[in-house]
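User: My instructor asked us to take a sequence, write out its structure as tokens, and then describe one feature of it. I'm not sure where to start. Here is the sequence I was given:
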Amino acid sequence: MRKLLMALAVAGVAAGCVLAYLSGITEAAQPPLFNPPANPYPNGIYANGIIESDQPSGENINVYPEVSGTVKQVLVAEGQEVRKGTALLSIDDSIQRAAVEQLQSQTQAAFALLEELKAQPRKETLDVAAAQVVSAQTALKTAQDGLDKQRAAFDLNPKTISKDALDNAVNAVATAQANLEVARKQRDLTRAGAWIYDIRNQERQYNALVNSHLSASALLSKYTLRAPSDGIVLAINSTAGSFVSGQGTYETYTQGMTPVLVLGSPHARLNVRCYVDEILVPRLPNPAKMKAQMSMRGSNVRIPLRYVRTQPFVSPKIELSDQRREQVDLRVLPVIFRLNKTAELRLYPGQLVDVYIGE
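Assistant: Let's start with the prediction itself. The structure tokens for your sequence are:
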């Protein structure tokens, strides 16, 4: 028994020594996946940067609709290159299309009435007026013949024709003459055609309806969003069935309004927008001598940049959250540089980078 205990004690001491030796062994440190960015310039300054598409001015192209409605169909895909005028997205236009069709019908009716006024007198209407003149002439001749007979009989024997009958015959002739005059004037009025003032009034009504139809058609075209220039679709923030307005579309994650689509220039050329803190602005080199180097976060890639322009307006620095709720006490000056993208570089607009600026 005593020997067994002694053996167990020796074994425990040996195991403890082995464990202490193994735990004292330290493994060699693994090399870092990437080196922290270093300032390549003696007096260089640091700035945060964000990659954006190459634009002659401003940032990416944010596309907003000029009308409100429900998205009917998205006609492009993210990453797709588009030409100027390419249809990007369509909004339900059923109500506006019905209004355009109604105005078109009213315009056509007004034009038909205008053509009718200009085409007067109508031959059939003029024939009726001429026939009424002939009828009035016939009636006048009949009344005149009756009066002549009664006067002849009265001259032979006044007792055969009463004074009252003779007066009625005279009145009948006068009435027939008046009817003939009315028929002739009506014929002349019909022959003259439509009154010039009626034609001018109808022309103005027709022109007003034409302009209304053109305006409604122009508004109808706004229900299809088209590319304002050649570029590439960077982001689509809306889908079929969602509601969009002139303020954009509701973004679920930031709980704010965002552009319906975002377009940029083709990725062959990209810009880097750097935000230089206002306390470092006096240390910015002369633009003619300015150089910069960009470091991609998470890699050892260092990319030279070429100065493009400075946006001459110091504005509050913003974060990547809802801008309406941000409180900032730092102001920055945007400086834009350009880089040429190669096949080896995987860069995307919106990507954050580190930039050092020097001479």
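For the description part of your assignment, you could build on this observation: The mean pLDDT is 85. Try explaining in your own words what that tells you about the chain.
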